[in-house]
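Postdoc handover notes: sequence design on the structure in folder B. Input tokens:
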């Protein structure tokens, strides 16, 4: 009998944009990738989706802050996923877009409470990422009928 973790019992499929956006609302933690000192840098940040844009929050980080203060000039990549460690089934979403630091006190008052900081530190840096490119992949178990049984959640 084939186990659920057997690669032969899996289906990999592309996620449509609408489904990828919906899944971004399921998790609250991801990775922002940016260039710092000519090298790739990755930081773990929290996020929420508002008005079709991703809002990220992070504790103060000088390298990340340097990227965020150049509104409209900095492109970043954001990645999040939900993969079951036992079955290795789940999904991954990658978003590329322009990033801009949010400095309006009104916007900060509205958005900061929606960011659930994972490490107990305050979100000193809050920024918008406007998704220009959004890709997603789901790895699902398949039944004997070759239909996916585990949809992304």
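Designed sequence:
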């Amino acid at each position: 009998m084939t186990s659920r973790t057997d690669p032969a019992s899996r289906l990999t499929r592309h996620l449509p944009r609408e489904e990828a956006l919906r899944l971004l609302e399921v998790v609250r933690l991801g990775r922002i990738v940016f260039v710092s000192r000519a090298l790739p840098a990755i930081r773990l940040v929290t996020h929420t989706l508002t008005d079709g844009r991703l809002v990220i929050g992070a504790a103060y980080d000088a390298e990340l802050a340097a990227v965020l203060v150049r509104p409209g000039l900095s492109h970043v990549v954001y990645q999040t996923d939900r993969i079951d460690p036992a079955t290795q089934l789940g999904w991954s979403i990658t978003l590329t877009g322009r990033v801009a630091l949010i400095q309006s006190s009104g916007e900060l008052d509205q958005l900061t409470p929606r960011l659930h900081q994972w490490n107990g530190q305050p979100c000193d840096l809050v920024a918008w990422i406007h998704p220009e490119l959004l890709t997603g992949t789901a790895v699902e178990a398949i039944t004997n009928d070759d239909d996916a049984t585990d949809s992304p959640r």
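Context for whoever picks this up: DSSP finds three helices and seven strands in the chain. Don't rerun without checking with the PI first.
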